[in-house]
Design a protein that fits this description.
heterotrimer; A mainly alpha (262); B mainly alpha (264); C alpha/beta (307); B: 264 residues; mainly alpha; globular; C: 307 residues; alpha/beta; 6-stranded mixed beta sheet; 3-stranded antiparallel beta sheet; 11 helices; 12 strands
Chain lengths: 262, 264, 307
C-alpha cells in the first residue's frame, strides 16, 4: 500500500514542478467551458429551447460536463505511448509493482489535482456566470452516478492503455491519438448533449464507449435518463471488453518491446 | 537579406518532411486528414444543430455563419501549415539542436517556426479553399476582385500578427521550457473566432480583435464581404500588426538573455 | 588585435531550490526559493590568431559555460567579451559567419539526408563561392577519408564517420574560430586519436584558432600547447602545458629497471634528481634507468586539490 501512496505523492510533485504548465492547463479547462457557454447564451439567452433544452438546462449540462471532465478524463496514461517509444517504460516495468496499477495510481493523482483546482475555479465561474446548478438529492440517483463515474474512469483508463500500446508497434502514435481526440470531443457529449441528435444517431453513438464517459454519468446525476440501467449495463460491458483487450494488447506488446534508449 | 538562402533551406526541409512521410508515415497522414475532416464536420454539425432552431446567431444568418466558419477554417489551417515548428520547439531546446539554430547565420526564429511544414497538410488547403468559395456563393454575396484583394490584404496583416504571437510563445518557451500547453491555449483562443465574435460580448469581442487578432481571420473579412465593414479601418490594423511584431521580437531577445542552454 | 578578449567574465544562473516531499512541492508553488548559481565567477584571458587552446577542468568547472559565452550562446552576467571584434551574444551575421561550433555527441547534420546534402546546404547558407566550396570540400573529405560515405544517410553512418562528417560541416565555411565542446566524448580510442590528429593538422595548416573544452587528459596532452585550467568558475592556470608541470610538480619520477625485469619507481624532488639517480645506479642489479615527469593527470589533480 505504501508504494502506491508514494507513487501518488510523487506524481503530484511532478505536476507541481511545472508551474506554468499547470496554470496553462487549468486556464484551458476554463476555456472549454467558456466557448459553449457563450454560444448557447447567444442562441438561447433570450429564451426558447433547442431540442428540449432551455438555456438553464444547457448550462446545467455544461457545468456538469466541465466537472466530470476533470474527474473522468484527468490522466497521465496518455504519456504511455511516449514512454514506450523513448524507452522510459523500462524503469517502472522493472519495479515490483503491477504496471496497470502503476498507471492507475498516477491517473488518480492527476484527477485529485484537477479536482483540487476545480474547488477554486468553480466558485469563480459560478459567481461570474451564474450557471444554474442542480444539486441532486435523490440517493438512488447519486448512487447510480457514482457507479457510472467509476465505470467511466475505468473505460477511459483502458482506452488510454490501448492507444498507448500502439507505440509497441509504431513510432507514430500522435495520428491515431489525434483522431481519437477529435471523435471523443464529439461522442462523449462534451460539445453538446447527445440527446439533441436525431434518435438514429443517438443509437449509433451509444454503441461506442464514448458517451459513457461524460454524457451517461451526467444524465444519471440529473436523473433524466429513462434507460439508466441499460446504460449502466453497457458501461459495464465496455469496461470488461476494453479491459480484456487492453490486457491482451499489452501482453502482446511487451513481447516486442525493444526498450531502445535515448 | 539572404532571402534566397531562406527559401532554399525551407524548400529542402519541406521536401525532406515529404520524403519521410511518404516513406514512413503514410497511414499517419491519412489518419490526420480523417481527423481534421471529422473535426470540421462536427463544427458544421454543431452550427446546424444550434441554428436549426435559432434563425439568427448574433444577427447573422445560417449561411453567413457558415461562411465565417469556412474562412476561419481556411486561414487557421493555412497558418498552422507553415508554423508547425513550434510543436517540436521544446524538444529542440532540450536536445541541444536549438544551440545550432542560434549559431547558424539564418535566424533561429526561422528554424523554430517554419521548419516542419507538412506538405500533406497542404493537400487539405485546396478543399478548404473550395469550401470558402462555396460558402461565399451560398451566402448570396458576389465575389468581386475588390473584395478578394481586400481579403488577401487582411490575411497578410493577420499573418504578421500570428507570427508575432508565435514568437511571443517561443519566448515563453525559452524562459520556462513550457510550450505545449501554451500553444494549446492559443489554439483554444483562436477557435473562439470560428463563430461570430459578437456572442462573446463587447469585452470578449474587443480582446479577440485588438489583442489576439483572430477576428481578422473570420468575422472581419466576412463583414467586408457582407458590406458591413469599412475597409478604411484595416489601415489601423497594419500599425497594430507591426507593433505586435516589434513587441514580440523585443520579448524574444530579452528571453534569449536568460537562455541557459542544454548541458553537455 | 587579439582574436578573443575576455575580461572578468561572469555567468550566474537562477536555480529554484526544491523542497522535498509533497507538502514541500506545494509550498514551492506559492513561495519558491530561488538560488543563484555562479557557473563562471571571474574569468579573464586573451587568445590570438592561430592558437590552439584547451580549457580543462572537472565536470561542472565552468569550461563549457565559458565556451558558450565565447561562441555567443549565453549572455554574460558580468564582465566583457570580444571575439573577432564582435560581442558574441549579439550574434551578428558577420560574426556567425566566422565561427563554428562542434559539440560532442550532438549533430548539426540532417539525420535523414546524405551528408553531402548538409554540406551543400551549408554552402548556400554561408554563401561560399562555388570554386572555394569545392576546393575546401575536397580537401576536408580527403583528409578525413569519408569520400565513400558522402552519399549515405547520416543516420546510417557509424559514430566515427558521423563525427568526421560533422567536422566537415563545421569547417566547410573556413571559420576563423572553431569551438569544440568535449569533442572526443563517447568516441572509441582509435577515433579519439584520429580526431586529435586531424585537429592538430588543421591548426598547423590553417590560420584559424581552435578553442576546445575537455576533461580528458589525452586531448590536452596531444593537442594543446596552451591550456587554461578552470575549476569552480575560476582560472587556476593559464599558460603553456609544459610550464604547468614545471610549476605544479615539484617531483620527478625515477624508474629503475633491474636485470630480472623488475621495475621500481621513486618519486624525487626535482633538486635532488641527479643525486638520487647517481645513488641508484651504484646498485649492480640496475640495468636501466628512466627519468620522467609526473603524469600530467596527477599534476592537474594536484592543481585542483591544492586550490
Amino acid at each position: 500500500m505504501n508504494k502506491y501512496l508514494s507513487l501518488f505523492s510523487i506524481t503530484l510533485q511532478e505536476i507541481f514542478t511545472y508551474r506554468l504548465n499547470m496554470v496553462m492547463w487549468r486556464v484551458r479547462q476554463i476555456f472549454v467551458f467558456l466557448i459553449p457557454f457563450f454560444i448557447w447564451k447567444s442562441v438561447l439567452g433570450g429564451g426558447g429551447e433547442v431540442y428540449g433544452y432551455s438555456f438553464s438546462a444547457i448550462m446545467t449540462y455544461l457545468f456538469g460536463t466541465t466537472v466530470l471532465r476533470s474527474l473522468v478524463m484527468g490522466s497521465r496514461t496518455i504519456d504511455l505511448g511516449w514512454m514506450i517509444n523513448s524507452g522510459t517504460l523500462t524503469i517502472p516495468l522493472m519495479r515490483p509493482i503491477k504496471i496497470f496499477n502503476f498507471f492507475f495510481v498516477r491517473d488518480l493523482a492527476d484527477k485529485i489535482f484537477n479536482l483540487g483546482f476545480m474547488f477554486i475555479e468553480l466558485p469563480l465561474i459560478y459567481f461570474i456566470f451564474h450557471p444554474p446548478v442542480f444539486l441532486q438529492t435523490d440517493l438512488l440517483a447519486l448512487l447510480l452516478t457514482a457507479c457510472s463515474v467509476l465505470l467511466a474512469v475505468l473505460i477511459y483508463f483502458y482506452i488510454n492503455i490501448i492507444f498507448g500500446s500502439l507505440a509497441f508497434w509504431t513510432r507514430d502514435i500522435w495520428a491515431p491519438r489525434f483522431l481519437l481526440m477529435v471523435i471523443m470531443e464529439f461522442a462523449t457529449g462534451a460539445m453538446f448533449p447527445l440527446d439533441m441528435l436525431p434518435p438514429i444517431w443517438q443509437k449509433i453513438v451509444l454503441m461506442t464507449p464514448f458517451p459513457y464517459l461524460l454524457y451517461v454519468p451526467l444524465k444519471a446525476y440529473l436523473g433524466t435518463d429513462p434507460n439508466i440501467s441499460t446504460h449502466l449495463l453497457f458501461s459495464l460491458f465496455w469496461v470488461t471488453t476494453l479491459g480484456l483487450v487492453a490486457s491482451l494488447i499489452w501482453k502482446k506488446g511487451l513481447t516486442s518491446y525493444e526498450a531502445e534508449g535515448r | 537579406m539572404h532571402i534566397k538562402s531562406y527559401l532554399k533551406v525551407w524548400f529542402k526541409l519541406t521536401a525532406q518532411q515529404f520524403q519521410s512521410q511518404i516513406g514512413n508515415a503514410r497511414g499517419a497522414a491519412i489518419l490526420f486528414i480523417l481527423g481534421k475532416l471529422f473535426r470540421l464536420g462536427t463544427a458544421f454539425l454543431m452550427l446546424y444543430v444550434i441554428m436549426g432552431r435559432a434563425k439568427l446567431i448574433s444577427g447573422y444568418t445560417f449561411e453567413e455563419a457558415i461562411f465565417i466558419l469556412a474562412i476561419f477554417n481556411f486561414i487557421s489551417s493555412l497558418t498552422q501549415l507553415f508554423m508547425r515548428g513550434i510543436y517540436v520547439f521544446r524538444q529542440k531546446v532540450i536536445d541541444g539542436t536549438f544551440d545550432f539554430y542560434l549559431l547558424n547565420p539564418l535566424s533561429e526564429l526561422f528554424y523554430s517556426l517554419f521548419s516542419y511544414t507538412d506538405p500533406m497538410d497542404a493537400l487539405l488547403i485546396i478543399p478548404y479553399l473550395g469550401l470558402v468559395i462555396w460558402a461565399w456563393l451560398n451566402s448570396g454575396y458576389p465575389i468581386t476582385f475588390l473584395t478578394v484583394s481586400l481579403l488577401m490584404f487582411v490575411f497578410t496583416i493577420v499573418g504578421v500578427m500570428i507570427i508575432a504571437w508565435h514568437i511571443a510563445m517561443l519566448a515563453l518557451g525559452i524562459k520556462y521550457l513550457e510550450v505545449d500547453n501554451t500553444v494549446m491555449l492559443y489554439r483554444d483562443l483562436e477557435k473562439m473566432a470560428a463563430l461570430p465574435i459578437e456572442i462573446y460580448g463587447k469585452f470578449g469581442a474587443s480582446v479577440l480583435t485588438y489583442v489576439f487578432p483572430f477576428a481578422l481571420m473570420s468575422v472581419i473579412p466576412a463583414r467586408l464581404v457582407f458590406g458591413l465593414y469599412n475597409p478604411i479601418f484595416i489601415i489601423g490594423f497594419i500599425f497594430l500588426a507591426l507593433a505586435q511584431l516589434k513587441l514580440s521580437l523585443f520579448f524574444w531577445r530579452r528571453a534569449l538573455r536568460s537562455y541557459s542552454s542544454a548541458s553537455s | 588585435m587579439h582574436t578573443i578578449i575576455a575580461k572578468n567574465l561572469r555567468k550566474v544562473y537562477d536555480v529554484q531550490k526544491k523542497r522535498p516531499g509533497l507538502i514541500g512541492s506545494i509550498r514551492d508553488l506559492y513561495s519558491p526559493i530561488n538560488e543563484q548559481k555562479e557557473a563562471v565567477k571571474d574569468v579573464s584571458f586573451v587568445i590570438d590568431e592561430g592558437e590552439l587552446v584547451g580549457f580543462i577542468g572537472p565536470n561542472g568547472a565552468g569550461k563549457t559555460t565559458t565556451l558558450k559565452m565565447l561562441s555567443g550562446l549565453l549572455y554574460p552576467s558580468g564582465g566583457q567579451v570580444r571575439v573577432l571584434e564582435h560581442e558574441p551574444w549579439k550574434r551578428d551575421d558577420a560574426f556567425l559567419r566566422q565561427i563554428s561550433l562542434v559539440m560532442g555527441q550532438k549533430n548539426q547534420l540532417w539525420w535523414d539526408l546524405p551528408a553531402i546534402e548538409s554540406f551543400n546546404l551549408a554552402r548556400d547558407i554561408y554563401e561560399i563561392p562555388s570554386s572555394k566550396y569545392k576546393k575546401t570540400l575536397d580537401e576536408l573529405v580527403d583528409i578525413l577519408e569519408i569520400k565513400d560515405v558522402l552519399n549515405v544517410q547520416v543516420r546510417k553512418l557509424s559514430l566515427g564517420q558521423r563525427m568526421k562528417a560533422e567536422l566537415v560541416a563545421a569547417l566547410i565555411h573556413s571559420p576563423k574560430i572553431l569551438f569544440l565542446d568535449e569533442p572526443t566524448i563517447g568516441l572509441d580510442v582509435v577515433m579519439q586519436q584520429s580526431m586529435r590528429q586531424f585537429l592538430k593538422h588543421y591548426n598547423e595548416n590553417n590560420d584559424g584558432s581552435i578553442i576546445l573544452t575537455s576533461h580528458y587528459m589525452d586531448d590536452v596532452k596531444e593537442l594543446c600547447k596552451r591550456v587554461i585550467i578552470i575549476d569552480q568558475g575560476e582560472i587556476l592556470y593559464d599558460g603553456l602545458l609544459s610550464d604547468v608541470i614545471a610549476k605544479f610538480s615539484k617531483h620527478k619520477i625515477i624508474e629503475v629497471i633491474s636485470a630480472t625485469g623488475q621495475i621500481k619507481t621513486h618519486k624525487v624532488l626535482r633538486a635532488g634528481v641527479a643525486a638520487k639517480a647517481a645513488e641508484l645506479l651504484k646498485d649492480q642489479a640496475v640495468v636501466d634507468i628512466n627519468i620522467k615527469e609526473v603524469e600530467i593527470e596527477d599534476v592537474i589533480r594536484q592543481v585542483f586539490t591544492s586550490k
